[in-house]
Amino acid sequence: MGQSALQTLFGDPFAVMNTIGLVAFALVGASKAIREEFDLFGITIVGLAMAFAGGATRDLLVTRIPLALQSPVEIGLGLLGVGLAVTLSIVLPTPDTHPVTVVSDAIGLAAFTTAGAIVATEAGVSAFGIVAIGTINAVGGGAFADILLDRPPFILFEDFYASCAVLGGIAYWLAGTVGVAEGTAAGVCAGVVVVTRLAAVTFSWNLPTVQTLRCSE
Amino acid sequence: MGQSALQTLFGDPFAVMNTIGLVAFALVGASKAIREEFDLFGITIVGLAMAFAGGATRDLLVTRIPLALQSPVEIGLGLLGVGLAVTLSIVLPTPDTHPVTVVSDAIGLAAFTTAGAIVATEAGVSAFGIVAIGTINAVGGGAFADILLDRPPFILFEDFYASCAVLGGIAYWLAGTVGVAEGTAAGVCAGVVVVTRLAAVTFSWNLPTVQTLRCSE
Amino acid sequence: MGQSALQTLFGDPFAVMNTIGLVAFALVGASKAIREEFDLFGITIVGLAMAFAGGATRDLLVTRIPLALQSPVEIGLGLLGVGLAVTLSIVLPTPDTHPVTVVSDAIGLAAFTTAGAIVATEAGVSAFGIVAIGTINAVGGGAFADILLDRPPFILFEDFYASCAVLGGIAYWLAGTVGVAEGTAAGVCAGVVVVTRLAAVTFSWNLPTVQTLRCSE
C-alpha cells in the first residue's frame, strides 16, 4: 500500500472501519467453519460470506452495487482473515471459542456498525434507518454464516450482541446530531460497541423475557 | 396525526394498507417470539422483522431504498404492534394461537398483498410481477420471522396461506385490467385475501399432493 | 416462438443460457418438493423459487428490477420445468435422485453460472465480482430451495458443487481477458461447469478439510 493509499485510509473513517471489519469477520467466520469440519472451499466461503454479507445487504438497502463486487481490495482482505483463521486453527486447540476469536468478533461488530452508520448517513435515511443499517451491517454476516452452518441465527438475540450494535448506531446518530466530526462520531460508535460487547461477554449480561415480567407481577 | 395526515391516509390506498399491515404483522411476529420465550429485545426484533421484511424485499425488488428506513412513522407503527403483543401476552393464556392473533395475521396478509400489488403496478412490472411482489410483500415477513425463530418457513405452504395472497394479487391485477379505480381494486384484493384465508383456517382447506394424484389413478 | 425470436435466442448467449437454466432448475426444485410430499402449490413455489432465486439475487446485486418480474416468458419457462417434474414423478420411482434430475441440475448449474457471468461483465464489476455473481446465480436457487425445504443449504459445500461454478466463472473471465467472443466464452464457461460437476458426481470428488491437513503434519 503506497503513501497516498495510507493517507486515504487514515483520512477516511469508512475505509478504516471497513478494512478492520472485513479481516476480523472473515477470521471469525472461517473459525466457525473449521470447527464444523468444513473443507477448505467451505471454510473460505463461510469466511468470505461472514465478511461480505452484512456490507452487501447494507449496499443493497441504499441501492448501490455491493462494494465487495467492485473492489479487488475487499476480497484480498477477506482472504487474509481466512488465512489467519487457518493458521490459528493449527496453533490453537479450540480456535472458535479462543479469546482471539471472541475479541475479533467484538472488533468486527464495532467496525461494521460504524461502517454501516456512515454509509446510511450519507444515503440520507432517517435516524431509525441509520441504526437499522448499522445493525444489519454488523450482524448480517454472522447471521448468514450461521444459516450456512445450519445453526439458528436467533442465537444473535440470546445474549447482548445485536443490542451492542443498536447502542453504537444510536451513539453515532447522537454524535452527528450534536455536530461532532465524522471521524470522532465513528470512534464513539466503535468504542460503545466494543466496550458493551466485551462487558456483556465478561459479565454474561442478559435482557429480561416477558415470562420474567409475568412472574414478577 | 393532524387532519391533513388523515386526509392523506384515506385518499391513499397504499398508506392505509401499509399502516394496517405494519401494526398487525408486528403484533403477530412479537407474539411468536413471546411463545418462544425470547427476551424483550428479541421480541422487538422479531416483531419489527415480521412487519418490515416483506416490504423491504418489495422495495429492493423495485430498486428503491426501503420505506421503513426513510420514514420514522413506520418504526412507530411497528413498535405499537409489539406493544400490543406484549400487553396481550400478559392478559391472554396462549396469545400466539388466540383468535385475535389469527385474525391479525389474516388482516396483515391482506393489507400487505394489496400494498405490494400497488407498488408493483406503479413500478410497471408484468402481471406475474404484480402477483409475485404482492405475495412476497405478504408472506416475506412471516417467512423471515420463522427463520429467526428457527422454524421451517415452508409451513407457509402447508395450508392455504400464500395461496390467498396469490389469489388477491390476481384479483388486483384483474380489477386494474378492467379499469377499476385504485382504491376499489385495493378493497377487492384485501377482501379476497381476508375471506379466503379465514375460510381456509375455519374449514382446514388443503391442496392435493402429487402422492394423492398418484394414488387416485 | 416466431423466427425472429429464435434468431434473438441463438444470437444472444444470455437468452440461451437463461432459458436452459430456468427449465432445468424448475424441474430439479419441483422434484425435491415432490419427494418431500409438498402439495401442488408448494411444488410450484419451490420449483419457481429454485429457477428464479439465483437470477433475482444477481439482478439485485447489479441494482436492476429482476427480469423474472418484468418478462412473462420467464414464468412460462419455470412452469414448463415444474410440469416436466410432475410428469417425471408419475413415470419414475425416485425422480429426485434419477440421472435425469442429476444431469438437469448440472446443466442448470452451468447455464446459470454463464448467465450470471455475462450480466456481471456487462455491469462492469471486478474479476471477483464476475466469479461471485456467476456463482450466486448458479447456487442461489438451490440454496433457497433447501431453505424452503428445511434442509441445510451448506450441503452445497459438501461436494464439488459451488466449486464447479467458481471454476466456470474464472474460465469466463479468463476467456474474456484473452479477447474471445462472448458466445465462445459462454460455451467455455458452461462446458467447464458441466464437465467438472458430472465428473465430481461420477468419481465422488471431495476437497480436504483443515482436520485432514492437521493430521497429516
UniProtKB/TrEMBL annotation, chains A, B, C:
Cellular-component GO terms for this entry: plasma membrane
Keyword line: Cell membrane, Membrane, Transmembrane, Transmembrane helix
InterPro entries: Gly_transporter
Recorded topology in the membrane: Multi-pass membrane protein
Pfam families associated with the record: Gly_transporter
Subcellular location as annotated: Cell membrane
Domain Glycine transporter: 16-87, 103-175
Segments crossing the lipid bilayer: 14-31, 38-55, 75-93, 100-120, 126-148, 160-179, 185-207
Record-given protein name: Glycine transporter domain-containing protein
Organism in which the protein naturally occurs: Halomicrobium mukohataei (strain ATCC 700874 / DSM 12286 / JCM 9738 / NCIMB 13541)
Lineage: Archaea, Methanobacteriati, Methanobacteriota, Stenosarchaea group, Halobacteria
